[in-house]
Specification:
Length: 677
């Protein structure tokens, strides 16, 4: 709205008196009679100003009273020296467009309110509608200078307050008159008739700044610290910043507690189409913090913060910030600009099975294979100087352990409780010294697994898992992934170099016995009762360890009986093989229980049972035989009881080579030619 000002054609005479100078164009030209009245008034003022003070001097020879002081863009405080006004600035209230505040200072070159406050030598006048004489009894106003501070609501102690303010906004010309006298006699006079610069904060466009500053925003990073429970927005002038660092400090930081709004902040990040509107004067400032340079938010400050994500793109952020401190104002405006997402991570892996079986070190790479909507992630610590160097994910097999996680694309971002939700993902630990694979789906496991897609090929991954009678895994990673073109199980599953052996290992992979097989003797019996049940025709394989001469005692020489129809076989799960009739005996006793029972097999009406996990492979190539029998000592192994039991130890027997003629005393109807063919 255009303010009414002093018309340039009004005679200079009208500026001599605060009453006269506030004549508007309409008032001045309305009638000739009014013009004559004002002229007479001016003449009276001039005449009275030149009279002698007869009451004081009475013509008695005293000195005449000096004329009143004449001010020309000056301030006079309590009769002191005149102070030249060299800078004038005004501001319009942002909430009340009719409220004007004027700053007049003897310091030269001031252009902003902040500079006025820093100089701290100004006359400050506040009025509504600066268009003439101010009715100080009824209109809103204030005058502040040195120890004089008077306003409409604080007139006590003041004998006289005259104020006239006229601003022509189009030309930034101000005509101002101040005349204040306290009841104690202290006076303040000021007159100004000159330009006055409008001050307003710069409009921010993808910028931030304190007070008059306006710094462009080149990068924004949304950074999550799960350990601290915080989400921080780091704002940089520099472009291309994707992670916070000491080398590149942020110009502005906005920190939220990650639980500030659990519906809109998920995995530490604002979700798409989310909007947080934070009032610094009422919201919990223990959960919100803003800092830029010397500005630090504090409880009770006035201001608002808006954080809003794009409706469909989580990488687009809108920021509106305006907060006022005691002597600073911090603002920011970022209009749905792109952001980078980051997570604080140790990038570390620790796998431990026993005190002597530990891998503890930094992760440098995360591998990913994506197929059919499922991600496979693999990580480990390769050997620094392997005997056989390997590349890609295969390099993990040169270290002690590797870890694999399988998770569906739709489940990224979820936190899995392994005690209850392990069926929704895959977790495997591969041990390359014991050649054992720990599969969470087949073991009792507690802990959590989380994988988050942070965009731009970056993923956050954390594992905190404890396998019962197995490894403990703690891992964390954030960064880009290396794509692989093949599924990981075939590459990472440990394969022990072949060695003829009888081996029993504890659930944690440590070894109880590990015997080398010297030879495998074979006999055949046409009418044998397996486990005391029905009779069948079967082959018997005796696995003779080095240094043992007698083969008929299952204490040191385990034997395996297989019905004729399954002599050559490859059975992954012996429990599901209905036509398989078999028996296994091994009764060796060590310092700890080796196996729960000395006898296993099927059919088994009395003592023999089939473990839940057992496999058998018997292959023949000319005179060369390859036999592998493996079982985990767990299942319904006690007669009459439906409950599973066992030691959970794993037995492996493997042989490769020719077979030897049975040397014991039991029935054997095999011809010698059997052993040579």
């Amino acid at each position: 709205m255009e303010r009414r000002g002093v018309h340039p054609r009004i005679p200079r005479l009208l500026y001599l008196n605060p009453i006269i100078k506030n004549i508007t164009m309409k008032q001045f030209y309305s009638t000739g009679l009014r013009l004559l009245s004002w002229t007479a008034l001016c003449a009276g003022v001039i005449t009275s100003s030149c009279k002698k003070d007869d009451s004081n001097n009475g013509g008695g020879g005293g000195e005449p009273t000096p004329p009143p002081v004449t001010l020309n863009d000056q301030i006079e405080y309590n009769g002191g020296d005149l102070i030249d006004i060299k800078s004038a600035v005004y501001a319009v209230d942002e909430e009340n467009a009719n409220l004007f505040t004027f700053y007049l200072s003897p310091t030269e070159g001031i252009k902003t309110v902040k500079e006025m406050e820093a100089a701290d030598d100004y006359l400050k006048v506040m009025v509504e509608e600066p268009a003439g004489t101010v009715d100080t009894k009824n209109q809103l106003f204030s005058i502040d200078y040195e120890d004089i501070s008077v306003s409409k609501t604080s007139m006590v102690g003041y004998a006289n307050v005259n104020l006239s303010v006229n601003l022509l906004e189009q030309t930034s010309h101000l005509v101002l008159y101040v005349d204040v006298k306290t009841e104690s006699g202290k006076t303040l006079l000021a007159r100004y008739n000159n330009t006055c610069t409008l001050y307003k904060l710069p409009t921010l466009n993808n910028q931030y700044g304190i007070d008059d500053q306006a710094t462009k925003i080149g990068s924004v990073v949304e950074y999550v610290d799960f350990a601290a429970g915080t989400t921080t927005y780091y704002v940089y002038e520099k472009e291309g910043v994707t992670a916070p660092s000491e080398e590149t400090p942020a110009g502005l930081t906005i920190r939220l507690a990650s639980d500030f709004d659990p519906k809109q902040i998920v995995n530490g990040r604002l979700v798409a189409d989310s909007k947080l509107e934070i009032d610094f004067s009422t919201d919990d400032m223990q959960k919100v913090s803003v800092q830029s340079g010397t500005f630090q938010s504090a409880p009770g400050m006035a201001g608002m913060l808006t954080l809003q994500k794009d409706r469909t793109d989580i990488s687009k952020l809108n920021v509106k910030l305006d907060i006022k401190g005691a002597d600073q104002r911090l603002r920011a405006n970022y209009n749905y600009g792109s952001i980078s997402a980051g997570y604080k991570s140790s990038d570390h892996l620790k796998v431990s099975v026993t005190d002597d079986a530990v891998m503890d070190g930094d992760l440098t790479e995360l591998f990913n294979y994506f197929q059919g909507g499922v991600h496979q992630f693999a990580f480990g610590i390769p050997a620094t100087d392997p005997e056989e160097p390997k590349e890609g994910v295969a390099a993990l097999t040169t270290g002690r352990y590797a870890v694999q996680i399988n998770v569906a694309e739709a489940n990224l971002g979820k936190t899995f409780d392994l005690a209850t939700n392990k069926d929704q993902l895959g977790l495997f630990v591969y041990d390359y010294e014991t050649y054992k694979t720990y599969d969470a789906s087949k073991m009792d496991v507690t802990g959590t697994v989380r994988v988050i897609d942070a965009g731009s090929n970056n993923y956050y991954l954390s594992v905190d898992a404890v396998f019962q009678d197995g490894p403990t895994v703690k891992a964390e990673w954030f960064g880009s992934v290396t794509a692989e073109n093949s599924a990981f199980a075939e590459i990472l599953t440990p394969v022990e170099p072949f060695r003829p052996k009888i081996q029993v290992c504890r659930p944690d992979g440590s070894t109880i016995i590990d015997w080398t097989i010297a030879n495998v003797q074979v006999r055949h019996e046409p009418n044998y009762s397996i486990g005391g049940g029905e009779k069948t025709s079967a082959y018997f394989f005796y696995f003779v360890k080095e240094g043992v001469s007698s083969v008929d005692s299952p204490i040191l020489t385990p034997f395996l009986a297989v019905n004729d129809d399954n002599l050559l076989c490859d059975i992954a799960n012996m429990k599901d093989k209905a036509d398989l009739k078999w028996q296994f005996k091994f009764t060796y006793q060590s310092g700890e229980k080796l196996l729960y029972a000395g006898e296993y097999g099927h059919p088994a009406p009395y003592t023999a049972r089939t473990p839940d996990e057992s496999s058998l492979s018997i292959q023949k190539d000319g005179t060369q035989w390859k036999i592998t029998f493996q079982m985990k000592d767990w299942g319904v192994l006690q007669y009459g009881s439906p409950n599973p039991t066992g030691t959970n130890n794993t037995l492996v027997i493997q042989w490769e080579g020719p077979l030897t003629k049975y040397s014991g005393y039991k029935t054997n109807d095999l011809e010698d030619s059997f052993y040579g063919n």
